[in-house]
Amino acid sequence: MESELERRLAVTLAEVELSTALGSIDLWLLTAVVGLISVASVAFVV
Amino acid sequence: MNPVSMPSEATFGTWPVLRVERVWGFGDFLWVSVGLAIATWAFLSGGATAALVGFRDGVAATILGNAVGVALALLAGAVPCQRYGVEQYTLLRSVFGARGSALLVFTIILIDVLGWSGVLAVMFGRAAVQVGNAVLGASWEPNGWAVTGLGLLALALAWWMFAGGPWAIRALNRIISPALAVLTLVMFALLLTATRWETLLGAPPLAPAEGGPWLNFMLAVELNIGVGISWWPVIGNLARLTRDPRTALWAAFLGLFPATVVAQVVGLVAALALGSADPTAWMIPLGGVGLGLTALVFIAVANLTSLTSIAYGTCVALRQSSASLARLDWRRLGALFFAAASALCFAPALLYDHFLAFVTWTGAALAALSGTILADYYVLRRQQIALRGLYIVGPASLYHYWRGYQLAAFLATGLGLLAYVALYDPQTLAHAPLFMWLTASGPAVIVAGVSRLLMAPIMDRRAGRPTPPPCVPRGRETGSASS
After folding, report:
1. Hey, which of B128, B134, B310, B314 would disulfide with B150, CB 3.0 to 4.6 Å?
2. What does the UniProt keyword field contain (chain A) (predicted)?
């Protein structure tokens, strides 16, 4: 069991190193989408 | 490796899920998210919104609140779990410490998910009671023994489905989600044909708070942020089964956000048109006996799939939080969870009829938690976790902190919660002037996050464990990994 966990940790570490974290483009895009929705919603009410 | 032959400790436990084992592509996760969102709790949230505001303000509050809440839940839950394939509350050890994470699971998280499970079970019971009353000519009460019994039946059925694991959830959602989407659209069409547009626009809220339309709008926004952020306790453990970070973020956002809004707006319109916030009371007046009964049966079945998804995420979390629960067979663990939720079936009105306070209180806690997690994961760690440290037990782990607790994270979360309550008390609806412009969740996130950042240089070192550098290489930590 423990050796299987060790194997999984090693493989995951390698996979994480090869992959990219969620990019700042996605974070900014999400922020922009939510910001626009918020402004539009308030404008709709006011 | 074929996903079906994947070790159960990865699927049902805390071990990292490898990329080859991740079963959900963009389409799968989109439908899973739609299935979660079109669950009947959305109708209930729409009904609760209608208690505060009319149609126009209600639509705006639903869209605004859910956009903010869902985005927070995904950034704090789905994205980190997808990156490492690690169970959500195991990953949370990096933020709150091993014991700290377990403490959160057994307090805030368990209260939240058991509450939602109880609400769904009671709604199943009420839907079934409506069917019984219409078909059998019975006169069962909405808070009577029949609701309790049928709620317990719902939990038993959900437990049976839960034993199938994520593949069962996916299979069920592929059938139930599209069917519920159709039902929601049919309800919407019926409502719009039965109700004149002018009547709908002019319909007053069912039970607004004193203080004017803007206050009620802000209360509705706050409620809907609470609804949106309520995905956090379950979304991480589902997102870790997706294949890449963009799928985790965008499939969930594009599934949860619009589907929740559509279903909630249907609930809002139905509540305003029919004068009741309870979705189970709408169907027969709306669709007649035939269509209404079909809709009620769908509602009952849909609640089962939602219950199953909630239980899956929570039981995985419980396994990492207690050694004795980790040894328990998956079915027995599920049985324990559903048994705990069953207590709420004996007091059907407790949460179901106080839905606004329940959602807002849990939303307050989750907003503060999210602020702390966002500051920790994105700013302090720059999305890098020392993975082995999550599985090393005791002081050898980088994430042991002070006796297993990261005090700075708890303090920051507490300050965030205090900021929330200082601006808005969900129990009495008392509020500070700033609430009228900032909401309470927004400041709670910011106060918790900024507090965590300010405390990092002082408290992390005092605890003997500075904030770990990104990607600590294997071998730098002592001790062997143990789940």
Report:
1. B128
2. Membrane, Transmembrane, Transmembrane helix
